[in-house]
Amino acid sequence: MHDPDRYRPTERFGDRVDDYRRYRPGYPPALTRWLLDEAGLAPGDTVADIGSGTGLLSRDLLAAGLQVQAVEPNMAMRAAAEAELGSFSGFASVAGTAEATGLETASVRLLTAAQAFHWFVPLKARDEAQRVLAPGGAAALIWNVRRLDGVFAIAYEDLLMRRCPDYAAGQPHQASIGEIGEFFGDATIREARFDYVQQFDFDGLKGRLLSSSYTPKADDPAREPLLTELRTIFDAHQQDGSVAFEYDCRAYLATMA
Predict the structure, then answer these.
(1) 178 phi, psi to nearest 5 deg
(2) % pLDDT > 90, the chain
(3) Whose CA is closest to 176, among 168, 184, 166?
(4) pTM (2 decimals)?
């Protein structure tokens, strides 16, 4: 298992908020429908979105008529979500972590962690999830997993492996099956997968790259060579001025309370 303290997950996205908000993938509409159906939710029910970041999943849950407690430890990310989603009457922003959300006991019907669970301490997060979930409540772990089976995708992956030491060293960007199983325990896990695609011009591709916490910071001399090579890869693989990021959106859900 990775050591979450090594990467300071509550801090490391603070200088990447704008790129994260603008260029990270959202989630397919089919995911929201699946979550509502599997968790038996109705408009007005309350969801805790843990590690909510800039609110990419929270926005979809709010649009479905749910009340959302967006729990995010990073102040800059939390502020971006508040600016984006503050007009929704069902939105609440909470400074907390997966292991200590600050939410009331048995107060939510569904707990989600989208692109965030790999930063959690699984057993402590499990205890907290079971505390805040109402009887019959469920938890869902969600990732957009970048596909590696196209010529552009292979070239981009090779770039990350050569130019981003944290990525090559195995900085977590999704959880292992073992960690997922540890979180859910004996609960029956329901799984779904959905297709998702982002199209980027070069500026968008650059923003998508720099939104990742394993890329060099602005003052790092390694950043400029990385971006120079990114331009070369884009020029070699673009079609009509854009490249595609293709994802498997993977969701795991189980009743935990």
Answers:
(1) -65, -40
(2) 84
(3) 184
(4) 0.90
